[in-house]
Design a protein that fits this description.
The chain has helices at residues 3-13, 20-37, 66-82, 87-104, 131-148, 151-162, 166-170, 204-213, 219-224, 244-247, 266-283, 324-329, 335-348, 375-389, 392-398, 401-409; strands spanning 49-51, 63-65, 107-108, 111-112, 115-117, 129-130, 185-187, 191-192, 229-232, 235-238, 258-259, 300-303, 306-309, 353-354, 357-358, 362-363, 368-369, 372-374, 413-414. The chain starts with a helix and ends in a 13-residue tail after the last strand. The protein is globular. The protein is α+β, with helices and mostly antiparallel strands and 427 residues long. The chain has a single domain, classed as Glycosyltransferase, CATH 1.50.10.140. Helix 5 packs antiparallel against helix 6 (151-162) and helix 8 crosses helix 16 (401-409).
Length: 427
């Protein structure tokens, strides 16, 4: 950890409450701080979660998630961009993270286990070799790769990606030779998970990294996943309640102003999903304390009775628990509304704001909040803040010829239809 980075964060912590872009920058900075100072000092495997307050205790010990480690690689790029971390130190941390992941992180046919011991890299909690969490790692690495443009990093990343058996996870080891959708994972005890990534959720970042890195990824896979359209409060969106489903892929890839050959505009979906959720929280059918058009955010987070994927207005799961980082993460689609929500939550619920930014979840009705932050929550938020500000990492990723070829292959092309805010979900 650089002394300069610590000093900048300490100085700004005395200026609360911040507003506007300064508040967003502070949240991004605190996220980078999490990914810089909480990983294991030798392996750099990032904790799945960590205490957000001086008097809190992490609830899962020294457990890393491979997804959080991917966001840590992206955070190296974000920290270097802002000068919060010296660029040479950030790059060397990113390189060494890849070295350690390649050498130590347990995998099955190149697919990483969801949860690992942060020192040994061995699988913990009987977790699955996860397609979606491996994807988050690979996409975080792609952000770092396209930002740093470093030959040594490229070579290390290639060693990791070359050993991935994409077809193994696509066809259940050959048992389903005609499958075009990835299984959700594999466990040594009982084999492939029956559920597949074949309907709208966070699957787009898995598909796009596959198209980017694996030339044999079938085009039919993109064209045939289910896209159920629903409507709430006048907003048409793809069915999916937790807001992260609509946000995650767009932290890595720039969907703005694009439609695929089926006619869908996924940026419009994310905007509409956010606006629909704001309308739901304003209506507040559960009559929970605190909800308004300024205080909202239903997504996966800690709840008073355990972790849960809250959501609305589709697949409604609502017990009064809000995920503040998800409200901020929609700043990429709803800059005014998301900034207003970020400011309102900081002002009305200042105890949600800790060492690494927003706690993962809070429930005003029960006067409860989680003591922790979760890496993938603040990692996604960090990238969306950065791309909403100046698009640095979107531009880096989208300039990669492999990504350009992937977008062309699935027909996700730029259109010229006028202002984004006036576009419709499907044509």
């Amino acid at each position: 950890m650089t002394t300069a980075f610590i000093a900048v964060v300490a100085a700004l912590s005395n200026q609360q409450p911040l507003q506007g872009q300064a508040l967003l920058d502070d949240l991004s900075r605190r996220a980078v701080k999490f990914f810089w100072e909480t990983p294991n000092p030798r392996t750099h495997f990032s904790l799945d979660r960590a205490p957000n307050f001086d008097d809190s205790a992490t609830s899962n010990g020294e457990v890393s998630s491979i997804a959080s480690t991917g966001y840590a690689l992206a955070a190296c790029a974000v920290g270097a961009k802002h000068g919060w971390i010296r660029k040479d130190e950030a790059l060397e941390r990113a390189r060494d993270t890849l070295r350690q992941v390649y050498a130590k992180s347990q995998h099955a046919h190149g697919w990483f286990y969801h949860f690992i011991d942060w020192q040994t890299g061995k699988r913990v909690w009987n977790s699955e070799a996860s397609t979606i969490d491996t994807s988050l790692f690979l996409n975080g690495a792609l952000v770092a790769q396209t930002y740093f443009k470093d030959k040594e990093f490229d070579a290390l990343f290639k060693k990791i990606t070359d050993r991935i058996d994409w077809k193994w996870m696509l066809t259940d080891g050959g048992a389903k030779p005609d499958s075009v959708h990835f299984t959700m994972g594999w466990r040594p005890e009982d084999g492939f998970i029956n559920a597949r990534w074949d309907s709208f959720n966070e699957l787009m970042h898995l598909q796009l990294i596959a198209y980017t890195l694996w030339p044999e990824m079938p085009v039919k896979s993109w064209d045939t996943w289910k896209r159920p359209v629903v409507e709430y409060a006048g907003y048409k969106l793809l069915a999916g309640g937790p807001l992260f489903l609509h946000q995650m892929a767009q932290g890595f890839y720039d969907f703005a102003g694009r439609r695929d050959r089926l006619g869908f505009d996924y940026w419009v979906d994310s905007r509409n999903a956010t606006l629909a959720q704001i309308a739901f929280c304003k209506a507040n059918p559960g009559k929970f304390v605190g909800y308004s058009d300024k205080v909202w955010g239903l997504s996966a987070c800690d709840n008073p009775d355990g972790y849960n994927a809250n959501g609305a207005p589709v697949w409604v799961t609502d017990n009064g628990t809000l995920a503040p980082a998800c409200a901020t993460a929609s700043v990429l689609f709803t800059p005014k509304e998301s900034l207003e929500a970020t400011e309102a939550i900081v002002k009305q619920y200042p105890k949600t704001y800790g060492i690494y930014g927003f706690t993962t979840g809070f429930n005003p009705s029960r006067k409860w909040q989680s003591p922790d932050v979760i890496g993938i929550d603040i990692g996604q938020m960090m990238l969306n803040i950065e791309n909403a500000k100046d698009g640095t990492f979107h531009k880096a990723v989208m300039s990669d010829p492999r990504v350009q070829a992937a977008f062309a292959k699935i027909g996700l092309n730029k259109t010229s239809e006028g202002p984004l805010e006036q576009r419709v979900l499907k044509k």
